Amino acid sequence: MEAIAVLLIRVVSVLSDFIILIAKWALTAFVWVLGKTLFYPFDGLLTCISSIFNAINLSTFVASYAMNWAGLPTQMIWLINAVAIPQGISILLAAITIRMLINLIPAAFTRI
């Protein structure tokens, strides 16, 4: 009788190990499929965005912009940098961008 109980415990142990192994395999397969399902569309989207940005040629714009700044008198360039106009424009653009992003949040979630 005791040998049957030991054999039964051993069978249940092996069976439970097998079920756990199958569950781990199924979970690993599910995570792999989910990862591939999310990766390929996102990779395609980023490839399209990269292609769009690579198609835009800004080299002439940057060169003309630099030449326009180079044509200013040195006193004017010093004044523009002294009153921090470039930093101010950057701060304003960042504030406008943040405000536009905040406007995307529905009002129902922002009320207390």
How would you portray this structure in words?
This protein has helices at 2-55, 59-70, 74-82, 85-103, 107-110. The mean pLDDT is 85. It folds into two domains: 1-56; 58-112. It is elongated. The N and C termini lie far apart (68 Å). The chain has five helices and no strands. The protein is an all-alpha fold and 112 residues long.
SSE topology sketch:
Elements: H1 2-55, H2 59-70, H3 74-82, H4 85-103, H5 107-110
**Overall outline:** elongated
| Straight-line N-to-C gap | 68 Å
Uncertain regions: pLDDT < 50 for 5+ in a row? none
Please summarize the sheet with the most strands.
none
Written as H for each helix and E for each strand, in order along the chain, the element string is HHHHH
Number of E strands: 0
Indicate the mean pLDDT: 85
Count of helices? 5
Tell me roughly what share of residues is in helical segments.
over 70%
List keywords for this structure.
112 residues, mainly alpha, 2 domains, 5 helices, elongated
Write a brief caption for the model:
By secondary structure, this protein is an all-alpha fold. The chain contains 5 helices and no strands.
